[in-house]
Amino acid sequence: MIKTDIIDDIAMKLHEAESNRFEVDKFTDDYDELNVEFAYEVQERLIEIKCEKERTKLAGRKLGLTSKSKQEMMGVHEPTYGVLLENMELIEGEKVSIEPFIHAKVEPEIAFVFDRDVKGDAISVTDILQATAYIAPAMEIIDSRYRNFNFTLADVVADNSSSSRYIIGDSFGKVEEVDLRLMGMVFRKNSEVIATSAGASVMGHPARAIAWMANKLAERGQSIRAGEVVLSGALSEAFTIEASDHFSVSFDGIGSLEVQFTE
Ligand code: 0L1
Ligand code: MG
Question: Is the Cβ atom of 156 under 6 angstroms away from ligand 1?
Fold first, then answer.
């Protein structure tokens, strides 16, 4: 098969799995050529298909695999990134049905909203902070299309880094008013504390993860644009969602966010 046919085949199968709620086996089992570079081409094709079929458009980006423990688990030394689309956004206060998901999990994140473009190939933490309008508490719902979340780095990149939905809180903070490395986080499920963490769990500083992504985007001729949102990476492991679960996340200095799931 020629390269463009393989890209189309994988992207279409991933989109079908998401749309019809079924799991697929990882594609690296069948395609030796599926390395990380190739996988970002599949991801781009998948996003094109989603935008066309779901009549939506790009809202921002997300980082994945930003914690040392997740990277060690997968035997890799770098994170991944993916795309957030407008139709993936959930509104705080609205109940979220688990019906469209395959086997979703939720994780706490810090969202960065940009009011300036971030362009170039030597982007630093300072560049990211200077282009940020505000930060806000967020949760990401990940829903890998792979059976039992079983994938290699290239597979997960092709699958848009497992992204499914995201929720951004109404409260927000300014990056100059908080120390993002020391910012404490408490994550609760059904009122019980299930994880505590600090901003530094995301590659030492959440803006470092975004700077890494900005430099990787530049290699592909892309960039972060003013108005976009970026989820900077999970501050804890992801937790499986069951119908009737309630999750809340509280961050020191920027407020909290809660979500109620239903059948
Ligand atoms: O956002 C994330 O950190 C998820 C990245 C993909 C890994 C996974 O699905 O667990
Ligand atoms: Mg995430």
Answer: yes
Q: Give residue-wise pLDDT tens across range 123-182.
A: 999 999 999 999 999 999 999 999 999 999 999 999 999 999 999 999 999 999 999 999
- pLDDT for position 1: 85
Residue whose entry in the numeric block shows the structure tokens 């200077």: 130
Structure tokens at 260: 């109620």
State yes or no: pLDDT of 183 exceeds 90.
yes
* CA 231 to ligand 2 center in whole angstroms: 7
106 ligand 1 Cβ < 6 A: no
Buried b (16+ CB within 10 A) or exposed e, 179-193: ebeebebbbbbeeee
Exposed, middle or buried, 157 (CB in 10 Å: 0-12/13-18/19+)?
buried
Instruction: Kindly give the residue spans of alpha helices, DSSP state H, lying in the chain.
Output: 3-19, 36-53, 68-74, 125-131, 153-158, 206-219
Distance (Å) from CA 165 to ligand 1 centroid = 12
pLDDT of residue 76: 87
Judge if the beta carbon of residue 160 lies within 6 A of ligand 1: no
Q: Provide the whole-model pTM.
A: 0.97
